[in-house]
Amino acid sequence: MVRPVYIYGSPVLRKVAQDITPDYPNLDSLISDMFETMEQSDGIGLAAPQIGLSIRLFVVDGTPLAEDDPNLKDFRRVFINAHITERGGEKTIYNEGCLSIPGLHEDVERESTIKIRYVDRNFVEHEEVYSGMAARIIQHEYDHLDGILFTDRVSPIRKQLLRAKLNAIAKGKFSASYKYRLAK
Ligand code: NI
Asked: Residue 140 Cα, ligand 1 centroid: separation in angstroms?
């Protein structure tokens, strides 16, 4: 089932999300809903706060970008109780967007390598190192779990310039081809 994407201005996007336990209700259908919602909106990542749930879970699917970056060939998975334990490498800049901030794209600087600890849908623990575009997608989604949006990571001057645009988005002044939900 496709769920509505919560838009900039929704308080849940600013909360620090919590870990979950294996008895979390209907986890399997939640995960498939998240994949479905991400696909329907042409996203390459979706974090639970973006569908209104303040839990440390996100899904990614970088496979549409595998032509440009062969490392993304199998990069489709769910990260539960994710915690980045190390960040490093060269910083790189990339023009990011976010399903919760429709129509806005900004250059964001991020570290190129990360180490992340998480459990999969069977609650099996993993610790993995990612770099390049995979590391960027993970960092963007991971930020959502800490209540951080990519627009928080632009320069102070850009931030100033974005304020009016973000306020307009929060009021619904944008077009999006997917189901969404504005803050009440
Ligand atoms: Ni996002």
From this structure: 6
Pick the CATH number of 5-181 from 3.90.45.10, 3.40.50.10320, 3.20.20.70, 3.40.50.261: 3.90.45.10
User: How far does residue 76's CA lie from ligand 1's centre (Å)?
Assistant: 16
Domain map (residue ranges) of the chain = 5-181
Give the catalytic positions in this structure: 141
Cα of 99 vs centre of ligand 1, distance in Å, is 6
3-state secondary structure of 85: strand
- The count of other CB atoms within 10 Å of the CB of residue 26 is 8
Measured distance CA(84)–CA(147) in Å, rounded: 15
Tens digit of each residue's pLDDT (9 = 90 or more) over 124-155: 999 999 999 999 999 999 999 999 999 999 99
- Cut 0.90: pTM above it: yes
State the distance from the centre of ligand 1 to the C-alpha of 144, rounded, in angstroms: 7
